[in-house]
Amino acid sequence: MKKEIRICGFGGQGVILSGFIIGKAASVFMDYYAVQSQSYGPEARGGAARSEVIISDEKIGYPRPTGVDLFVAMSQESFDTYRNDLNKDTKIVVDPDLVPKNDIGRSLYKIHAQKIAEALGNKIVTNIVMVGASTAIFGLLDEEAVKKSVLDSVPKRFLELNEKAYIKGLEAGKNALKKL
Amino acid sequence: MKFIYDPIKIRDVLGNKIQFLLGDMACVYGGLLAGVSFFGGYPITPASEVSEGMARLLPRVGGTYIQMEDEIGSIAAIIGASWGGAKSMTATSGPGFSLMMENYGYAIMTETPCVIVNVQRTGPSTGQPTLGAQGDMMQARYGTHGDLEAIALAPSTVQECLDFTIEGFNLSEKYRNPVCIMTDGEVGHLRERIVIPDEKDLNLINRVQATIPKNKFIPFTDSQTRKNCKVPDFPTFGTGYRTYVTGLTHNEKGFPATDKQKDHEKLVNRITTKITDDADNLVMVEKLKLDDADIAFVTYGASARPAETAMDIARSHGKKVGLLRLQIVWPFPEKIVSKLAKQVDKIIVPEMNLGQIYHPIKEAACGNCEVELAPKIGGEMHLPSELLKYLGVK
Predict the structure, then answer these.
(1) Do A20 and B20 lie within an 8 Å CB cutoff?
(2) What CATH number does the domain located at B283-390 have?
(3) Closest to B91 in 3D by CA, of B191, B205, B188, B196
(4) Least buried of A150, B96, B159, B334, by fewest C-beta within 10 Å?
(5) Is A31 on the interface with B (CB under 8 A)?
(6) How far is CA B43 from the centre of its chain?
(7) Helix (H, G, I), strand (E, B) or coil at B114
(8) Do B191 and A62 make contact, defined as CB atoms within 8 angstroms?
(9) Domain spans of chain B?
(10) A44 in contact with B at a CB cutoff of 8 Å?
(11) Which residues are B89's β-sheet partners?
């Protein structure tokens, strides 16, 4: 088993942290091998950023994706830039408010992550909502393992907010699964 | 304030035993576990996280971090700290490594233990700041002038960034030579699972301190306390052993002897053979599926990762492919490569440069098999599919 995940958005959204959380969940809180890589422009904020995670039950040689199984996009620019090598089986998750031009002639999972985060009081946790939703939609990782990884990776004073965001994300993901 | 190596405190600062960690940070962890107490550096992508991590963690274990004015100052500072008794370290990338070359030679000539982490990026010059390459491999060996022996390790995984930094310190202390950890922007910026080794499994080596009566001490000669050891005992500054330290050719007492052919020959022969005599103990390689192989990848660092994937794919197509991964690149494991060349029909050398370690491999193969270079530059590692073409697999 080898699965490849690409999470993208604009710099500052927590795209790298999202990949880090998923990789940690798989390799520290579960028994998989995982490797996370990233690429981004020189900007600290803005620009397209991406984080890629490979999860496998065997040692991972080449550490970058060669075929994406899960594609998560949190900005229009990154959606347009980083979806060139998707295949017909790739599961696609977008926030339709951040990726309004998402009609590419195939079905995708729509998660209003930013709105959910805003309803919780802070849009900074948009990425964690997406981590929750992606966990539910992809179905590879144990929900509890990812939750542990979230709580282990965010600042102590925001634990509660992040936990709520993750749980709301999971719910949204499960609802999206039913719809599609 | 004297630094006290406290393994419990270090582990407390590092945190959980199992972590999902960045390659650059793993070099920081390795340094701390080895007992580094001084870091002098100047940030440069993709090595900045090493400085950043050291700035954050080193003071918490009682060590000293200084951001110097540049890379020349950085290596000068760690050489000085080493003579003050510290295990010392710096980290840089290509352009900074170039600036360090003069004092790298000084550390070799003065037999100063220290560790230089080079998170390689493309060049020449400032090249591609955030992207990986393996273009400095020959620079670690030949980049500074004169006759010398280099010790360099090349990690392929994040765990190896940690382990090899510890090993780098051990070798540096043992041989009194600077050691280069030749990682790269790819491995340095990967995150993977690491396990922090227990204290009992570390087997740390510390330089042998001068202990003989001070009036009998000779600073630059074979060890005065260890038989058949060409590495002199170390007279830490401030301990009362009078020592003159210079990059000029010096006699056994350390005083300049710049016009004496015999003194130069004796000194440089000793500081090179102290390493070459022990070359068999300086071999660290990983052999993968070589037993029945008739084609072998010989590579190191980041390049070994796509090579391993390509090997597995080729094997599934019935091709007998193996992989020899050089973990210590310098000294070059000539005997092992030479033996492999007599076994296989062909050696393929993937490198993220236009051919560097390819040359000593070809020399060691000595016509016994074909040696083909598989170069890739531009800041990306080889795709496994690109390497499969060299194996004739579509």
Answers:
(1) yes
(2) 3.40.50.920
(3) B188
(4) B334
(5) no
(6) 19
(7) strand
(8) no
(9) 7-201, 283-390
(10) no
(11) B39, B115
Q: Any chain B CB within 8 A of the CB of A38?
A: yes
Record: contact A66-B191, CB cut-off 8 A: no
Q: Nearest-5° angle of CA A67, CA A68, CA A74?
A: 150
Structural Rg of chain B based on CA atoms: 21
CATH class of the domain at B7-201: alpha beta
Alpha carbon distance B55, B65 (integer Å): 6
Output phi, psi for B298, to 5 deg.
-120, 115
ipTM over 0.90: yes
What's the rounded mean pLDDT across residues B210-215? 96
Domains: count for chain A: 1
Contact yes or no for B76/B90 (Cβ under 8 A): no
Q: A70 lies in which domain range?
A: 2-179
Please provide residue A143's backbone torsions phi and psi, each rounded to the nearest 5 degrees. -60, -40
**CATH number of the domain that A19 lies in?**
3.40.920.10
Interface of B with A in 110-149 (CB under 8 A): 130
**How close, in Å, is residue A24 to chain B by CA atoms?**
5
Q: Is A5 on the interface with B (CB under 8 A)?
A: no
Summarised one tens digit per residue, pLDDT across range A41-62 is 666 567 889 999 999 999 999 9
Task: Give the gap in angstroms from C-alpha B393 to the nearest C-alpha of chain A.
Answer: 17
Give the count of Cβ contacts less than 8 A between chain A and B: 55
Distance from CA of B185 to the nearest CA of A (A): 11
Tokens linked to B119: 């998170």
CB B196 within 8 A of CB B214: no
